[in-house]
Amino acid sequence: MPNVRFSEAVTSFYVDTALRVSRTVHVSQDNDLQAVPSTLVHPGDRLLFADFAQQVLTNFPATQITSLRDVEELHMEKNAIHNIPEEIKFLRNLKVLYLNDNCIDSLCEELGELTTLVRLDLSNNPIGCSNSIEVISALHNIQELRLYNTQLEEFPAEFCKKLIHLELLGLSGNKLRSLPKEIINLVKLKEIYLQKNKFESFPLELCQLSELEVLDMEGNSLRVLPKEIACLQKLEKLYLAFNRLQSLPNSLSSCEQLIVLDVAGNSLQDLPQSIAQLAYLKELGLSHNDLRVFPLQLCKVTSLQVLYLQNTGIKTMPSNFINLGKIQFLDLSQNCLHYFPAEICSLLNLQMLSLDDNRIHKIPAEVNKLANLKVLGLTGNKLKAFPEQICFLESLEKLYLGQDQGKKFAVVPENIGQLKNLKELYLENNSLEFLPATIKLLEKLEILDCQNNILKELPESICELKGLQRLLLQYNQLTSLPKDLDRLQKLKVLILDDNPMSDPPVNICSQGIPAVWKYLQEKRLRHVKATKIQAWWRGLMVRKGLGCFARLQAELRKARKEKQEKGKKGSAKGKKGKGSGKGQRPSAGKSKKK
Asked: What pLDDT is attached to residue 37?
């Protein structure tokens, strides 16, 4: 099953007028903006929002600055702009500026004159190698600054002294090893993103930012989380995944407002007992740690709704796991479970369950209690046959039963048609020779993956899956397709590679869906013509007075039969004459008879 990553908080900015010009921008052959569309610029009108994103521009529209003098939000991201012109200083009302994903390697001094700017994004530009980045320190009113992937090796201390209104600071994807001690001046800072840098120790200065709500240091080399983390009592989201942590401090429980804690991909073998005191914790990521035993203290965190335990070496689940009745998402994939934990069947709010790549050999009948389950992953287990118990999970929308590592299924049961809400069905890497006709009852099915089986034919009923968008059938033994498969008008992907196809032939299949549909339609048309010709011939026989077609057919069969009998008699005579010819000795019995 696909991993689900905790989403990063995204803020929005409200503007009075949202006149988007991205669909009507005029771009010259030199990829330079010629003009702001006149339809949007009228005397007396105030253009407050302009979007020139993804227009393949190589130059900032300096000549059109006067037309944008009232703009408060300007989007220039995802172009090929190399420089910011000095004319930008005339945008006196600009509050939001997006210049991320360009080719800017230096900043002009005039950028510092945009004193009304509250949000600036310069991510994915190589500006970190230039001293010109210091100009940002002049933007005293800036509240959100994003400098992701800008090749920064050091965060300027000057920023910490002058940008005292900062609430969001994005520095992920750089080369930072430390932060300046002056960062404690950012007393209003609520969110800081330091993911994928080169930190080997936790910056203690961060623990003095008492307003901090989101702290992301995923993908560094941290070995210890200091006890001073307890000072961040407003912290709501803490991301520390893929570091080198061997333990968590007991003082973490002082972060009483914590909602999300992600410590996946570390070297944890246990959790502090105090974690049970995190009364508001809803999402906990523990995947890829060496726990081996389910931490009993987690059973007291009854607020949990999302729990990741992928690849943690867990073999059993404790009986009091049923206390976590609010769990909606549970990932227990890639563990050592030999059975489907019965305790899970008591989690009535469960919507997503991943048990892929375990050693489960049987599904309990009690699984039908999971009335709200929408996604179920059982890929790569030791199930001996398709688990029919799951056919009673009527709310199921996605079912993963591919067996690339586990035992393979030979049959899909007829009652799979009970899964009326199923949208995605994955049955790859099994030993299926056919699919049941009841598959037509999966009216909401959008994806059907049957690759790498031994399918020899498809049921005609598959043509009734009107919502099917992806049909994966590579590596099977199919020679033909259902004659009405082209009824699947929503189908976007049809893969038939490595099948001994003859109807349609391989060269047609390799050309894609339009070619396959054309072949099926032409074949159907030929059949219709042949039927008409046969009907015409039958009618002609009747009209000519040669009798009823059925009687004519009977007489024809009778004539053929008589002809065959005469041929047999003639053959018998020939054999008798051959036996009495020259050189043959008649048997004693025949001589006496003569």
From this structure: 46
CA distance 517 to 522: 9
Pairing verdict, β 375-377 and 398-400: parallel
Question: Please, which residues have CB within 8 angstroms of residue 346's CB and are 6 or more apart in sequence?
Answer: 322, 325, 369
Contact 276, 301 (CB under 8 A): yes
Q: Which two tokens stand for residue 527?
A: 């059949």
Six-digit token string for 408: 């393979």
Task: Decide if 280 is inside a domain.
Answer: no
Q: What angle do CA 118, 120, 124 make, to 5 degrees?
A: 165
**What domain range includes position 442?**
408-542
pLDDT of residue 42: 43
Contact 449, 426 (CB under 8 A): yes
The letter for the amino acid at 253 is: S
In a domain, 267, yes or no: no
Long-range contacts formed by 196-200: CB under 8 A, 24+ apart: 196/172, 196/220, 197/171, 197/172, 197/173
Of 96, 128, 151, the last residue of a domain is 151
Task: Report how far residue 242's alpha carbon sits from residue 194's, in angstroms, rounded to the nearest whole number.
Answer: 13
Q: How many domains does the chain have?
A: 2
Q: Is 502 exposed, middle or buried (0-12, 13-18, 19+ CB in 10 A)?
A: exposed
Which letter does DSSP use for residue 33 in this model?
B
Give the residue ranges of the chain where pLDDT is below 50: 1-43, 578-594
Q: Would you say residue 83 lies in a domain?
A: yes
Evaluate whether residue 337 is within a structural domain. no
CA distance 79 to 447: 35
Q: What is the CATH number of the domain that holds 82?
A: 3.80.10.10
What pTM value is reported for the model? 0.81
Number of Cβ within a 10 Å radius of residue 63: 14
Point out the domain boundary residue: 135, 151, 167.
151
Whole-angstrom distance, CA of residue 518 vs CA of residue 509? 11
**What is the secondary structure of 538-555 as a DSSP string?**
HHHHHHTTS--HHHHHHH
The backbone torsions φ and ψ at residue 62, rounded to the nearest 5 degrees and listed phi first, read -60, -40
Q: Give residues with Cβ within 8 angstroms of 577, minimum separation 6.
A: none
